[in-house]
Design a protein that fits this description.
- The protein is an alpha+beta fold and about 180 residues long.
- Helix content is about 20%, strand content about 25%.
- The strands form two sheets. Strands 1, 2, 3, 4, 5 and 8 form a six-stranded antiparallel sheet that branches. Strands 6-7 form a two-stranded antiparallel ribbon.
- The protein is globular and about 35 Å long.
């Protein structure tokens, strides 16, 4: 089993509910187990158009390969109406594999770790909420990159009916 982190974001529709439902869809898959999930964050679009985004990050263990996990993530996006009319278009949901344990690769279909992981507050803050000492071999501790994203507008949202950021979260619970 490999540990991986998945980032969620969207800005069309009831994004909180869509992300919650997408997490539940993932939790129902035998090939993965959700270990932790962050609270929701609301952030300004970054190199994108439309309204504010809602974002979250989960930590999983999986039997899937990185490409198998990518396929699952893309299937969930399609299930929730993800369209790609142009680069950085507003979206109902976006799932990004942020890191996959032990894998570093650059490929046209999948780059790991995510190539912009250190450039986005909406990735760093929820990721560091559930993994405060997150470390990547070529980048070091990710918390060191927080000052570089300090000017990006982001707000942690109050959680509903859960304990955010706790480890060993039940696979069936979501925000």
């Amino acid at each position: 089993m490999a540990r991986a982190f998945i980032g969620f974001g969207g800005n069309i529709g009831d994004t909180r509910q869509i992300i919650t439902d997408a997490i539940i869809c993932l939790a129902q898959r035998r090939e993965l187990q959700i270990l932790a999930k962050s609270c929701f964050y609301q952030s300004a679009p970054l190199q994108a158009t439309g309204g504010d985004y809602i974002n979250a990050v989960i930590e999983i263990e999986t039997e899937l390969s990185p490409y198998g996990l990518l396929h699952v993530c893309q299937a969930v996006e399609q299930e929730f109406g993800r369209e790609r009319p142009y680069a950085n278009a507003p979206r109902t949901i976006d799932l990004d594999i942020l890191s996959f344990e032990g894998i570093s690769q650059e490929d046209t279909k999948l780059t790991l770790p995510h190539p912009r992981i250190i450039e986005r507050s909406f990735v760093l803050l929820p990721l560091l909420e559930i993994a405060p000492d997150f470390f990547l071999p070529k980048l070091g501790e990710l918390k060191a990159y927080l000052p570089q994203v300090a000017d990006q507008r982001i707000e942690k949202l109050a959680c509903r009916n859960c304990s955010c950021g706790e480890k060993a979260v039940s696979s069936q619970s979501a925000h």
